[in-house]
Task: structure prediction
Amino acid sequence: MPDGAVGATLPGPIGPYRVEGVLGQGAMSVVYRATDSRDGRAVALKLLRAELLAAAERNAVLARFGREAQIGLRLDHPNIVRVHDYGTLDAGQGGAPYLAMELVRGRELKHYLEADQTLSTPQAGGLMLAVLDALGYAHDRNVIHRDIKPANIVVQDDLTPKLADFGIAQVSSSDLTQAGDLLGTPAYMAPELLRGEKADARSDLFSAGVVLYYLLAQRRPFSGSVATVMQQILFVEPPPPSHGNPELPPPFDTVILKALAKAPADRYPSAAAFADALRHALAVAGTARVATPAAERTLFNAGLPAAAPPPDRDALTAALESALRAIPGQPLDERRLAELLGLLADWQSGQGGDAGRWQAVILGAGIGPLTDLIIAAAPAPRAAPATQRRDWMPLVRLFAALGRALAATPAADPTNIDRARMSAARIGFDLSGRFFLYSGELNRVLMDGDNPDIQMLSLDFLRLEILQHALEELGAEAELAQSRSAMLMFAVQVIRKVTQILRACTDGNDGLARFGVAIILANIEELIVMAQRLFETGGQATGGLPQDAVAEFIAAAGRFAALSVEELRGEVGQGSMTGSMTGGGSADSFAARLRGVGQLYLFATRLTAPDCAPLMHSLSTMLYGLVAGLTADLGNAPVDDTGARTRLVALAEMASGLGWSEVERIALTALRRWAVAGVAA
Result:
């Protein structure tokens, strides 16, 4: 999991662990980077935010959190995220439970898939062989994961996968998970689980087959709404993965479709059997890698090519000079930037050459002209298009790389290094000045009038983010710290503006001003997205926000959410009837308004001022009760009520995003009724 920004305010010690930064934040937990004070080991520390749990959800969430700890402590495998420790904070610190886990440097597999970072067939096959090895290890210990999906597979930088999140796993000796419980992610769920039957090892293999299909075909075998996916998994045979990826060798169709068989008896009997079939397909396709025991495995251990002779440094100097002198009249795209960075790296690995000439080229053809170009073309809100360059950030990255290359040159002239630092300081000073000038202007635009141009503000804020990224690239630490402070001040103003809009919606006699609710929600969502980005670029120091602003926002969000959900509840009968006749037109509005409420709540969970914990708990309990009641009512609708089904999909998605697993379970269980009945989605 990648490191996140270090906030200005972090919690004190959590058990024996010293907190050093934020790695990530979910709806119900925060994951910190921490160090074990006993042995100096770096860990990922997952802390459950107990103040956000409504009473009806608390026992189930705590049980699943504890199960994740107990299972993680007993599983020791190179492709499973290791759990080191489990504990509970003192009552004075909130009494929340925490997990200390292995700190994995990498990203979730879903980020590769969503970013269209296609893995090759041998890469995807090797990755899945490692996942199957981990599953086989868990199954041998009577642990069924039950939620295999890309978000629960962390991929390290060398593409080694680590299986994570055993929170809903089934253990043969445990009664925490019973047959009929609908927990997990529907798009990856085996048919028997949708039918309410007990999970076994073959259920995990079905889910692994869905992941492998997605990796190799670059699309999911089952897609659409939650209800549609459920019905497809139960009754529809997916197309062979080669239909989505014609370059995929034919043997993989047979392997994957067997894993996706509707009946468990028709699937592979074990993870080892699935792995053997996959390994055979890789071999037949001519893409096999030698399989080694898990303890010795590196995924891609093909033989290294023969060493190339050291590059000619004088030739590299000439090539660099030619490329640098072309930049003012020719855009620097990512390909050309990569070539230039390659020249810099090759020079360092070369031999001989005129070091003085190399330094002169870096300064005279690179750093000097780039300094003027970067300052002249710096992005600015509402700047004239003629002054802008689309390649501005690549220019900044190249400038920073040239400075590092100069400093790393053997026998580099200290005078040249000083000249490069002065150029970097000149750019940093200019960008910092622009940053404060434009952030002040945007702040004025935000607070002037009742209806600021939110889209314009978002675009202009994006330019501020670019300026801040440039300061990071240049290593301008003092200017960067000042910019983060400015971002947090701007975030406070955004929160106050959202609060103002929410009050205008709820304090009048006409409730939500029915004719303008879509525009209001769109503006709120835009502002909230902006505020979330402000927190991220400002260092996530949400604990340093004025508590009065946080408290006022939470109170206004609670009133707005309560009124929104009550109005949606009032529309359920009429809306469901309309949905049945029109195919769900009013259900689209229902989903949009519900999404706005969820966005408000998710943002409120990011405001971690300690004194606001009671307000957060009150907001969570109130919203939870309203949404749970609405979900239960819709779940009792007749199976021919398509409007109710569409609304339940929206509620399931909202509950999943908020971390309300019990509400999600209620919604999914109701949707299962439609799917099992074979009602067309």
